[in-house]
Amino acid sequence: MRVLLASRNAKKLAELRRIVAAEQLDGIEIIGLDEVPDFPEAPETGATFEDNAVAKAVDAAAATGLPSIADDSGIAVDALNGMPGVLSARWSGKHGDDQANLDLVLNQLGDTPDERRGAAFVCALALVVPGAEPVVLRGEWRGTLLRAQHGTNGFGYDPIFVPEGETRTSAELSPAEKDADSHRGRAIRLLVPHLRALG
Amino acid sequence: MRVLLASRNAKKLAELRRIVAAEQLDGIEIIGLDEVPDFPEAPETGATFEDNAVAKAVDAAAATGLPSIADDSGIAVDALNGMPGVLSARWSGKHGDDQANLDLVLNQLGDTPDERRGAAFVCALALVVPGAEPVVLRGEWRGTLLRAQHGTNGFGYDPIFVPEGETRTSAELSPAEKDADSHRGRAIRLLVPHLRALG
User: Fold this and answer.
1) Who's near B38: CB < 8 A, 6+ residues apart?
2) Which pLDDT belongs to residue B11?
3) Which domain holds residue A180?
């Protein structure tokens, strides 16, 4: 069965496919928005990750008739009262400019002492099967923010985020190490039983 | 009696002097940090407006022996979970660049619908008299944020802030109108009885 991930982000698509493969969900083929012609994309204006994920998955299921997964994720920085949050991808005002977004958080936290540099990566995942109620799941990954970036794996705020129990940033972890612990890995694993029920 | 306002901001100094004059606190002369040679300035690293105001006033009173007032103020934007908050003056990463800070908030709120554009200006004021416990006061001024700037009075985020009950931004109000309602005006009026007790 084809399941649509309502995203054009190749890294998110690869991440979901890796986990689906590892879970031996052999009946499930994950496709991305690039394989859906003329998909009408709506802006993300929700106040929460969950609102955005559900809205995207509902739109995708309505447009395609396919079971559709959408995620919204970002980083919640304690010293910024949980922001950038839903604005993580456009925190600097430039949508998708990872370096500008990361630099702005580093500058905003400039004077913040180590004990107040906590943060969490958060991922909300929604699965919408046409005709059924949305399933919404949430994964969190706690850590602390460095004062400079390290590592080149991952994306977004990975180069400044050191997960709890780690000494490396999440941009220094291998993809497999990241999948095992990350917010998105946690949320996707919560999704697995729901995908298995489709297959 | 000389009372030190622990600030180099000429507009804040003028604002406090106007209100002191209006309240006929004739025994009180407000001086600013520019009149205090070699004042050791510490970075503002507190988690709250109150923490920063008290820290500044304590430093000022210790350095000069004068009754010392310090303020910390900023804007708390609902859709940013109360940020920029204590980072209002350096939200863009550039300390004191009002235009960059305001532009960043406008960009961050770009997609945010009208009903979620609420905000409050907040001012914490501390008065530290050598040998006495600090007095800490707080004024708030609720309003909503526009999508573009209007007006040239005031400073900081004034050009995008429309106070409750107003149709103009706080940068379109006269200084007297602003004093009458503003967060800083409210906090300073709460301070007046404490200043009167000194004089």
Assistant:
1) none
2) 81
3) 2-198
Please state the φ and ψ torsions of residue A167, each to the nearest 5 degrees.
Answer: -110, -15
Is A72 a catalytic site residue? yes
> Quick one: pLDDT at residue A176?
85
**Residue A118 sits in a domain of what CATH number?**
3.90.950.10
Mean pLDDT over B160-168 rounds to: 97
CB–CB contact A108 B116 (8 Å): no
Number of domains into which chain B is organized: 1
Which bin fits B123, alpha (ψ -120 to 50), beta or left (φ > 0)?
A: beta
Mark yes or no for CB contact B43/A111 under 8 Å: yes
Helix-then-strand count for chain A, H and E: 5, 6
* CB within 8 Å of A116: residues ≥ 6 apart: A78, A79, B47
Q: How far apart are CA A181 and CA A20, in angstroms?
A: 15
Q: What is the ipTM of this complex?
A: 0.82
- Which residues make beta-bridge pairs with A127? A69, A135
Contact state of B108 with A91 under an 8 Å Cβ cutoff: yes
Residue B175 has, within 13 A of its CA and on its CB side, a CA count of 11
* Residues A158, A172: Cα–Cα separation, whole Å: 8
**Does A92 contact B at CB distance below 8 Å?**
yes
